[in-house]
Amino acid sequence: MSRKDNILPTRTTIYIDEALLERARRYIPTRGLSQFLNELLSERLTELERAEIEAQMRDGYIATRRERRELNTEWQTVDGEGWPA
After folding, report:
1. Residue 32: its pLDDT value, please?
2. Positive/negative CA dihedral, 52, 56, 57, 59
3. Contact by Cβ (8 Å): 68, 43
4. 3-state SS assignment for residue 27
5. Most CB contacts within 10 A, which of 1, 14, 47, 56?
6. Element (H, E) at 55
């Protein structure tokens, strides 16, 4: 998140595995770790939110399909009324 979004950074304490931090420092400058973690967290949260929406859509589709099947069964009787057999 950047300051241009009018969101002020919040100072917090996190615990990171030392070996993981050493690996990260090979690629990320010391003053760039917070930005890297913000970007990484943002990407991961976007993935989780997308997965949640997909699951809700899938559940909704399954429920709609079930309701449509029940409705079709109910209407089969009505559709055949008054027609010669």
Report:
1. 94
2. positive
3. no
4. coil
5. 1
6. helix 33-80
Q: How far is CA 7 from CA 11, 43, 63, in A?
A: 13, 17, 40
28: CB partners within 8 A, 6+ apart: 36
CB 40, CB 34: distance < 8 Å: no
Reported as half-sphere exposure (CB side, CA atoms, 13 A), residue 15 has a value of: 0
* Cα–Cα dist 44/46, whole Å: 5
What is the pLDDT confidence band of residue 80, given thresholds at 50, 70 and 90? low
Give dist(CA 27, CA 30) in Å, integer: 10
CB 23 within 8 A of CB 31: no
In the DSSP assignment, the letter for residue 24 is H
